Amino acid sequence: MAGTGFADGVAISEDAFAKINLALHVTGQRSDGYHLLEMLVTFTRSGDRLDFIPADTDEFHISGRFGGALASDGGTNLVLKARDALRMAVCDAGGAAPPVSIQLCKDLPIASGIGGGSADAAAALRGLMRLWGTPLPAETIDAIAIKLGADVPMCLASRPLIARGIGERIETVRDLPVFAMVLANPLKGVSTPEVFRRLATKTNGALAIVPGLSWLDALRSMRNDLEPPARALLPEIAEISDMLRDQGALFVRMSGSGATCFGIFAGVAEAQAARQALLGKRPDWYFEATETLAGDDDDRR
């Protein structure tokens, strides 16, 4: 991760881990238009970083490889929405939520299917709860998270899980192992609404973990129902998936609605070597070697 950007020490720091959909099954659609999903989700040690320090007035600074893409979004950034929603809840509970300077180091690609904005919002909630020191009921935090976005409750947990509904019903998966992984993105956007619009069937089979299978075999028995329409919209998804396989990935799939794909490798050394080879072929694309968090990993910072 990049440095903090503050000259004197940082009061609070939080990692915003990349969210990876190991599987994503679309099982229906509600009357309000929201799709019903069943997802097996994990998180990588790569991601963005947020730093928080008390200040005289609220400040928000963005740095990092992809920070420039967010520089003009004004007050629409989910970090600011998370700050404002949490401040209101803290004050309603009789606590104090004084001004804070927030530095977001944006190292994840924008709108790439790995929960970057949602992870940032969740990290803002975690960091500000620590900074302001006012305990709130879990249901209050959960309500804030789901209002910020369907992925935010998952990112707030930042541990391997199964999510159902629109993402709000979460079940921890404690036996999911660590995977060595390469994240790959051609740095071209794909429209999530258009991906869902092109989905041929919206009542697909449920996600099921078959007892007795290795985790890799279990993943092979699952799907990402959004990958076929995303590939039709952006051919580079197929190209980058083939590149991961050519470098020895044991398993390859697209995450979320794309365009980030992941390849699982035998170990960290193999993932790092694959990343270097892939960067040599396409230095203008995004490749990151990383590890996922274990289901029983409590080291979240």
Automatic annotation (TrEMBL):
Its EC number is 2.7.1.148. NCBIfam families: ispE, PRK14608.1. Pathway: Isoprenoid biosynthesis; isopentenyl diphosphate biosynthesis via DXP pathway; isopentenyl diphosphate from 1-deoxy-D-xylulose 5-phosphate: step 3/6. Residues 220-278 form the GHMP kinase C-terminal domain. Residues 77-157 form the GHMP kinase N-terminal domain. This is 4-diphosphocytidyl-2-C-methyl-D-erythritol kinase. GO terms for molecular function: 4-(cytidine 5'-diphospho)-2-C-methyl-D-erythritol kinase activity; ATP binding.
